Amino acid sequence: MDFAWVKKAFRTKRRRGGKTPAPASRWASLAARLVNPLALGSLAVGLSACALFDFGPPGPDDYPVKGIDVSYYQEDINWRSVVADNTAFAWLKATEGGDWSDPKFAQNWYGAAMAGLPRGAYHFWYFCRPAMEQVSWFLQNVPYDPYALPPVLDIEWVDSKTCPGHPPREAIIPEVKTWLDAIERYYGKRPIIYTSISFYNDRLRGAFPGYFVWIASYKGHPVVRDPSLRWNFWQHTEAGRVAGIRGRVDRNVFNGSTREWRAFLEGRLNPDG
Question: What is the set of active-site residues?
Fold first, then answer.
C-alpha cells in the first residue's frame, strides 16, 4: 500500500505552520481515513491498477521502437510517409530458396534508404535447397551496404507442394549454421533469426546462442505464450496499417529502449541482454 499521500499531507501541514499531530492522533486520523467508504473505493481502484501494471504483459504500443517488414505484396510504398508514421526500421524481402527474388526488393531497398529509414534484407528459407545455393542466391541479389541492418533468415514451417515434409532438427541445424556463417562473413554482421514460436521450440531452441531472435506471435505476447522464450523483435500482426502503404503490412516492435536501439544500430548490443 502506498502511504505517500499521508506523508505529503504532513509535509504540507508543516510548511503552512501547523503543528504535526501527535503520534496517537496521527494514526487515529489515518485509521478514520482508511475506513472512509470513498477512501476504500479509491484504494480498491489503486490496487487493481497496480495488479494490472505489475502483472499484465505490455502490448505493442508500450514498446517505443516500431518497424515493419514488407515484400512485393505491399506494392509501391511511399517511404517518406512510412518514416513520418513513427516507423524506426524495415526489413525487405529479398530472396526465397535459390531461384526466386522479390520483384520490389531493389525499389524498396533504395527507396527506404533515400527516406533515411534503417532497412535490411531477409531471405526465406527453402528446406529442399542446399544452404550454399541459398547463400549464393542471396549474395547475388542483396548489395553489400555497411549501413544496412543485419540480414535476416526467415525460417518456419510452411505448406509447400514442391517441398513437403518437416526435416528433423539434426538435418536443419547444420544447414542453417552454414547459411548464417557464410552471410556473416560476407556482410560483416551476424544475421537475425526470424521464426515462429512453434518452429523455434521444435527445431531451433538452444542451437544458436548469441543471435538476435525475431518471433512471430499474433495471438499474444511471446512471453505469455512461452515464458522461457528469449526474443529481441516481435512481429505482432500481419494486418497492420502504416501511412504510405495502401494495404495491410506486418508490424513489429524491438524489445528495448530507444537507447538500446541506438546501441543495436551501432553493433554494440548483446542479444542475450
Answer: 69, 156
Please tell me whether residue 44 adopts helix, strand or coil conformation.
Answer: helix
For residue 80, CA distances in Å to 116, 161, 258 come to 8, 39, 21
Beta bridge partners of 86: none
Domain ranges of the chain: 4-55, 60-265
For domain 60-265, give the fold: TIM Barrel (3.20.20)
Kindly list the averaged pLDDT for each block of 10 residues, start to end, along the chain of length 273: 38 42 46 45 44 72 98 98 98 98 98 98 98 98 98 96 96 98 98 98 97 97 94 98 98 98 98 90
Give me the amino acid identity at 190: R
Task: Please state, in angstroms and rounded to a whole number, the distance separating the CA atoms of residues 11 and 33.
Answer: 17
CA distances to 39, 234, 262 from 257, in Å:
37, 14, 9
Q: Which three cell numbers stand for residue 132?
A: 550454399
